[in-house]
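Sequence design from tokenized structure. All designs in this work follow the same two-part layout: the structure record, then the generated sequence. An example of the structure record is given first.
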């Protein structure tokens, strides 16, 4: 009998606290890795390819990889639990970072895109970890438990972009191009996160939740974790459908504007350190106030929080869109609000998805929701580069704001969010 099965139901609260603390640690380490790569991805892609129009492909392939890796990772978690699935995703992400280092050093664009695609598995881990925090959470505390894991990403994600400077020194020691140093920190962060999860995420929260719910984890799990089944359940469950729409649209708006901001600043000859500062403040907005967002979700429900998020996203797009090339206070404020609006839609939407179906169907539905979110964001990131090349950063921000308005309209039309 495994540790997962030997656990008494009376120990659930203690296990939940330990699970959240472990996930907070892995999110911190993983956040360093993800943010380090994001900070330099568009610039490296433009340099290696020699075309600004292709600059968005580094982030696009990363987001696409994060979406596609949701399929095998969700299936793996359905069979083996959160610990194995999350650890495997970080290992693949570390491999992707290593390929990105090699691509930056050799100037090989196709290798960079392969590397950033594999790198995307790390974002799968970071994304799925928030659901792991809800496996054993009481329904009335689901938003807060999820939000603390989201919040933990703040530490690593704020540090990550600011590792670009130290990364130059590391790259110099290793004989690499200056921006390759950021990928070195990515590989290290992902590796440490995988080790922490393997050592500390025991007993597994998802397997334990299934046992406590009366799901026999000794029997073959069949299609548990199957993303195709999850997509069908999302379509058939109004709460899951709306929650998926909320987190998807918020994520697409954020990715489209965020990924082009470093290039917008570079056109105004902003220093790389200032670009890193703006992205750090953006990520602080994404994660820093997540516990407040979770508290609001538990107290007032997800719908008002998502509406607040759409207002913040529209305001953010307006501030960013009217900013001039380079560094400006308006752009900095806009990127912070962009992150805060994302936090509202992500926490409230994810909490809704997490509670929309019984525990035996969670891995499938959560995987399906993240697949939709990731594929949509990948498309948004790809189009962002084209839109910016054709009509500029300001019009990109206008289109992103319109998407947020559509989400607000859908949210006000939803009749019920009950399961």
């Amino acid at each position: 009998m495994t540790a997962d099965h030997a656990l008494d139901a009376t120990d659930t609260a203690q296990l939940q606290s330990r699970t959240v603390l472990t996930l907070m640690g892995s999110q911190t380490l993983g956040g360093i890795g993800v943010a380090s790569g994001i900070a330099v991805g568009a610039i490296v892609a433009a340099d290696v390819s020699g075309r600004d129009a292709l600059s968005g492909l580094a982030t696009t392939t990363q987001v696409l990889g994060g979406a596609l890796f949701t399929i095998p990772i969700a299936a793996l978690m359905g069979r083996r639990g959160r610990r194995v699935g999350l650890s495997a995703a970080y290992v693949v992400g570390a491999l992707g970072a290593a390929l990105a280092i090699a691509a930056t050093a050799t100037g090989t664009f196709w290798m960079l895109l392969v590397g950033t695609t594999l790198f995307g598995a790390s974002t799968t881990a970071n994304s799925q970890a928030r659901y792991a925090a809800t496996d054993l959470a009481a329904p009335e505390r689901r938003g807060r438990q999820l939000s603390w894991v989201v919040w933990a990403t703040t530490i690593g994600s704020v540090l990550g972009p600011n590792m670009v400077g130290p990364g130059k020194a590391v790259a110099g020691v290793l004989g690499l191009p200056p921006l390759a140093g950021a990928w070195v920190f990515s590989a290290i962060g992902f590796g440490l996160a995988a080790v922490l999860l393997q050592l500390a995420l025991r007993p597994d929260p998802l397997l334990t939740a299934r046992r406590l719910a009366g799901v026999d984890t000794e029997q073959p799990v069949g299609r548990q974790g199957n993303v195709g089944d999850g997509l069908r359940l999302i379509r058939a469950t109004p709460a899951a459908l709306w929650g998926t729409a909320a987190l998807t649209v918020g994520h697409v708006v954020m990715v489209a504007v965020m990924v082009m901001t470093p290039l917008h600043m570079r056109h105004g000859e902003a220093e790389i350190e200032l670009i890193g500062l703006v992205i750090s403040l953006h990520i602080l907005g994404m994660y820093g106030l997540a516990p407040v967002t979770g508290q609001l979700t538990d107290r007032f429900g997800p719908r008002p929080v998502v509406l607040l998020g759409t207002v913040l996203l529209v305001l953010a797009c307006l501030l960013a869109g009217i900013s001039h090339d380079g560094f400006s206070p308006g752009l900095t404020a806009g990127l912070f609000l962009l992150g805060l609006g994302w936090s509202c839609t992500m926490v409230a939407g994810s909490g809704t998805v997490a509670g929309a179906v019984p525990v035996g169907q969670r891995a499938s539905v959560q995987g399906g929701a993240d697949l939709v979110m990731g594929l949509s964001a990948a498309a948004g990131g790809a189009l962002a580069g084209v839109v910016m090349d054709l009509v500029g950063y300001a019009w990109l921000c206008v289109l992103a704001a319109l998407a947020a308005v559509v989400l607000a309209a859908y949210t006000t039309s939803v009749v019920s969010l009950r399961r």
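The chain is about 80% helix and 0% strand. We note this feature because it recurs in several other targets discussed in the main text.
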